């Protein structure tokens, strides 16, 4: 059950309107790594979590907070669109600078949203539920969440340097701070999961019938690049992070199977089959003999 508080988690008020930046801000709202994605991702991970207690609460607590971030950013976008000009002539009459950036605004903000935020990214691509992952494996989900926070934080940091508006910057500072916490939190959750003995690397940790191929291929770095620079990496020698093997380095990877030769396909599918080549050659030859 959710309840909605009318107050925002943090202030979302710009010092002035900026329709062009409102368009850019859409990326951290409805983009692949935006707040709509992480909010839904964490909530679905929580709803799918089969372990009641701290892990389930962790997913649902953060997912709920991220819904608050969705509202903050949507509010900021709407305020940035305040008094947005409806035509180029109107923009030029208001202010030459407003006219100069008019072309950078998103017309859908006015046409579709009536001067409000939209569930789209910065180029207008609609938000998509396929952006979210809730695998049911806590370790896999925690690792993905670290990536999601890193990508989201990276985009917020880039946007921070694209505006001079003090109010916008202050909200972005808050989001950067919370993303810092969330990155560290998911990494701490990975450590906690290991300490609790619930998962081991890699995911899944207990895959059957893999010992022979794992011994041959599971810890060997294959270098397909010129030179041997990659051999200096931590991934090329020494113990693997899972504690179950030793890294090896192979600078001359070889094939382990011959070139595939596929059988003719079903003729009812009208593909070009190997067997037809000889038939065509015979027909062509018969025309000239």
Automatic annotation (TrEMBL):
UniProt-annotated stretches for the region Disordered: 229-276
Keyword Metal-binding: yes
Residues reported in the UniProt entry to bind Mn(2+) 1: 35, 69, 149, 182
Necessary cofactors: Ca(2+); Mn(2+)
Compositional bias segments (type: Basic and acidic residues): 245-257
Presence of the UniProt keyword Calcium in the record: yes
Note describing how the cofactor binds: Binds 1 Ca(2+) ion per subunit.
SUPFAM superfamilies: Ferritin-like (SSF47240)
InterPro entries in alphabetical order: Ferritin-like (IPR012347), Ferritin-like_SF (IPR009078), Mn_catalase (IPR007760), Mn_catalase_dom (IPR039377)
Keywords: Calcium, Manganese, Metal-binding
Residues binding Ca(2+): 57, 61, 225, 227
Amino-acid positions noted as binding Mn(2+) 2 in the UniProt annotation, renumbered to this chain: 66
Gene Ontology molecular functions: metal ion binding
Family: Belongs to the manganese catalase family.
Protein's recorded name: Mn-containing catalase
Protein species of origin: Micromonospora avicenniae
